[in-house]
Amino acid sequence: MEPLHPRVRLLWAGRTAISVSVLAGIAVLVDRFAVSLPLTAVVVLWGLLVSLGAVHAVLAHRIWRFELQDDALFLVRGVLTRTDTSVPYVRVQHVDTTRGPIERSAGLASVVVYTAGSRGADITIPGLRPERATELRERLRDLAIESEATDAV
């Protein structure tokens, strides 16, 4: 099974740090304008949550894997709740490559696989080199076209 690029850990840890910093900023505003909060507690909690986010990013990276199997895309992910997903190629509707500003700055991209079925039925494979994301998108597209030709429905 193929792992994600190690740089994705920085994106995940950075996302957590930004979220926790916003919450700390709100806590400072609450302290200033509403209820007095001990600044030391806010700083310690901020450090604890950022550290937990970094540990979570490392663990998530160790677990996250994907593989193109004979008839399906197989993914393994999740730190607290492990999720194994098998997406049959015949269910693939279309495949996109995305690169947001933060991903571009880290030199990474994501592949989004849209599947037939319920609303919001899509799978994202984050943390890929842009070249790998393009290769994967094209390969998934080809596999979906091939499987459509052999579908018995």
Instruction: Give the overall shape.
Output: elongated
Rg, Cα atoms, Å? 20 Å
- Uncertain runs are none
Class inferred from helices and paired strands: alpha+beta
Distance between the termini: 30 Å
Strand content: 25-35%
Q: What does the main sheet amount to? A: 4 strands, antiparallel
The overall pLDDT average reads: 92
Count of extended strands:
7
The number of helices is: 4
Strand order of the largest sheet: 1-2-3-4
Overall helicity: 40-55%
What pattern of helices and strands is seen along the backbone? EHHEEEEHEEH
Can you walk me through this structure?
- With 153 residues, the chain is of the alpha+beta class.
- 51% of the residues lie in helices and 25% in strands.
- The chain has 4 helices and 7 strands.
- Helix 1 runs antiparallel to helix 2 (39-63).
- The two termini are 30 Å apart.
